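ESCALATION

Customer reports they have been waiting on this structure for their group meeting. Please prioritize. Original submission:
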Amino acid sequence: MLASHFNWLTVVITLALALVLELIAMPDALLLLRPEWLVLTLVYWMIQRPDKVGIAFAFGTGLLMDVLSGSYFGTHALALSLVAYLVLGMHKRLKMFPVIQQSMIIFFVAGIQLMIVYTLRAFLTVADNGLDYLWQALISAFVWPILVLVYDRLAYALR
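Update from on-call: job pushed to the front of the queue and completed.
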């Protein structure tokens, strides 16, 4: 039912919400507990509408994230483009999985995205705290079922 109606307003609202949640200033101790909201939002829309939200959309969103966060230009764009490629390659299987199994895939997808961003950051500046970014991937996997529920309701309400 959601597949027959597509509203760009819903995508823009969820993406803006994800960008705001990514850019909220937090204490350093809590940064490891912040989910990757942008990755989760992009993966959600790539599963729901892979014909509308794809690699170019993820690249543009990554460039926007680079500009807004002040990070090196292209790091998030590269990472999100690779995530989009991986998710679009398996979106039909991912759509059939129960939400709990999707959460396990989200752990690996968010981990890959974070690994790319932190590796590029380590090459360009100073190395970070080793594998601490895996906590963010784990939190993202735990948040995934709630995010799917909220985004499904929002998409249904705005269609």
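Sent to customer with the following note: Residues 8-22+30-157 form one domain.
Escalation resolved.
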